[in-house]
Amino acid sequence: MRIALSILLVFFMAMPSFTHYAASDDGVRDAVTDMISQVNETLVFNYHDALMSFGSRYTGSENCSNAADYIYNEFKKMGLWVQFDEWNYGGFHSRNVVATLNGTSDGNGIVIMSAHYDCTSGSLGADDDGSGVAAVLASAEIMSHYTFNHTVRFIAFSGEEVGTYGSFTYAKEAYERGDNIIAVINADMVGYADTAKGGRTMRVFETERTKWISSFSVNVSEKYMPLIDLSIQPVPNYRGADHQAFLDYGYDAVFYAHYDGYPWANSPEDTPDHINHTYQVKATKLLLAIVAEMANRHFDIEVMIKNPLEGEVYLFGYPLFPISGGKLWYSGLRGATIIIGDATASVDVISDKDIDYVIFCIDDEFVSWDRSPPYEWKIQGKYVPPMGRHRLVVYAYDSDGHIAKDEMDIIIFTLAYQYAPWH
Questions:
Q1: For residue 270, how many C-alpha atoms fall within 13 Å in the half-sphere facing its CB?
Q2: Most C-beta atoms within 10 A of its C-beta, which of 46, 154, 235, 367?
Q3: Which of 258, 261, 376 is nearest to 317 (CA)?
Q4: What pLDDT is recorded for position 107?
Q5: What pLDDT, on the 0 to 100 scale, is given for residue 19?
């Protein structure tokens, strides 16, 4: 009996410890404050220095593969569930590294924190994007000892510098799996400042649909300003980063970067001596705070377009074949849906409250609504046929006045419109 008890004691002592905190605002603030206090220069730059030791990490190279092994092993040491996500695209073969910290909620919401570990040929990628990877690893190390409402995935992508192929294949497969990704927090170049304003500012690149993440980030920065001294400046979206693939597949995603310009990006001069250590640590603290707060945020209502599917060609309502457009990231066609003839849109709504109605729009113009499930609508224009490229937008309203929104890019060819004379 004593031997058995001793074995059990050793087992439980060996298990990783987790900090549980109350879901109240004060409980979250105390926990996040505690997490922020653990971010320091030694933690962040141990990860950064280790990544730099692999040299130039061009996608598909041995150095890139060795760096992936290192990131995998570091995540594993943290006790996270970790896997390689292999991809082949555009003539490249590489691996994303995905670590998961499971949430405590019965729901399936996922918050992603990401960066890319590859760089251009001949560059060390100290800022672009070794700084982001260091922030992700340091945040994962600290957050792994806490529990959160939503699942958090820490992802190191490859293939960013050759066409954002790693994030594209991951986002596409996540969509096909039906992953409920709430928000993507992508860190890309967060290690440099050379002005007083730059040292106190971080930019977030937003679209109209992701302004809620920007506003959330601003609120978090203000909440912890005395501890971090870093503010958020929202700016218009830039397509050429890893967050864009998630936007293309219907998820809400933004990316964060330092305020000051960085003249050495994608060059052999992107070296560790250009990193501002003070700023890198502050950026890591703020990004961690944003992810931690987001992972414990309560969402009153969610709406998701279930049909038509992203990146599919439809003929009179029937799916014919998927199109990826992965090499067309710059054109905004990646993940676009092509519809020829009539088609029906349907949505799922998640809420604890009764649903008042779902509104269907073309380019944010009200066309129709549905007050009872299943929430469906024949895709059509209001006064004229919606020929060409448009956005299918849906809004869901619950009985307490909460609103959720989803949208997708469509290229549609139909003569259907609500006030057509043949109706």
A1: 28
A2: 154
A3: 376
A4: 74
A5: 52
Q: Which residue has the tokens 């041995």?
A: 62
Distance CA 359, CA 379 (A): 12
State how far the Cα of 260 lies from the Cα of 272, in Å rounded to an integer. Answer: 17
What per-residue confidence (pLDDT) applies to 8? Answer: 35
Domain 20-295: give its CATH superfamily. Answer: Zn peptidases (3.40.630.10)
Side-chain half-sphere CA neighbours of 6 within 13 A? 3
Which residues does residue 365 pair with via DSSP β-bridges, in sequence order?
Answer: 362
Residue spans in the chain of domains classed CATH 2.60.40.10: 301-413
- Indicate the CATH number of 301-413 among 3.30.70.1530, 2.30.40.10, 2.60.40.10, 3.30.540.10: 2.60.40.10
Residues with Cβ within 8 Å of residue 130, at least 6 apart in sequence: 48, 51, 52, 117, 119, 124, 191, 272
Helices (H), 259-341: 277-295
Residue numbers of the chain with a pLDDT score lower than 70: 1-24, 423
